[in-house]
Amino acid sequence: MITQEILTQLTERLRNEQKLLEEELSKLGARNPANPSDWVPAKPEGEEFGADKNDNADIIEEMHENNATLNELEGRLNNVLRALDKIAAGTYGICEVSGEEIELERLEANPAARTSIAHMSEEQALP
Questions:
Q1: Which of 28, 29, 91, 118 has the fewest Cβ atoms nearer than 10 Å?
Q2: Over pLDDT 90: what percentage of the chain?
Q3: pLDDT (mean) for 57-69
Q4: 70: nearest Cα among 94, 38, 104
Q5: For 64-87, how does the pLDDT look when each residue is reduced to its tens digit (9 = 90+)?
Q6: Is the distance from CB of 97 to CB of 106 less than 8 angstroms?
Q7: How far is CA 90 from CA 14, 53, 54, in A?
């Protein structure tokens, strides 16, 4: 059972993680102006596209490499934001697969967990 004290601690951890993830994301990309919840890769700081095709290719390659990390961080941020929304709605700690309570030890290990231990393998497939 999640007490108010534990919920407060988990909320604080989620907010701290949100801040760290947003800082990391801003180093690798920028918010998509058409969809502010989406992040897109940005040019490395100090790099500019120019006439040299090789230099441009290097910039594009680095942006492409950063995109995988960006996607992973963005997915994690979305899970953190989803957890914070659930806390606000009073639905936090409920497995999205079974509808049962998520084990406290799972939430303490991963406050943004969307499933119980029994359904961990299905979490990646959730929308």
A1: 91
A2: 56
A3: 68
A4: 38
A5: 677 788 888 999 999 999 999 999
A6: no
A7: 15, 54, 53
Query: For position 34, what pLDDT does the model report?
Result: 79
- List Cβ neighbours of 20 (8 Å cut-off, separation of 6 or more): none
CB 91 within 8 A of CB 50: no
Q: What is the pTM of this model?
A: 0.79
Residue pair 98/119 in contact (Cβ under 8 Å)? The answer is: yes
Distance CA 43, CA 15 (A): 28
Q: How many CB atoms are closer than 10 A to CB 90?
A: 8
Exposed, middle or buried: residue 46 (CB in 10 Å: 0-12, 13-18, 19+)? Answer: exposed
Backbone phi, psi, residue 35, to 5°: -150, 90
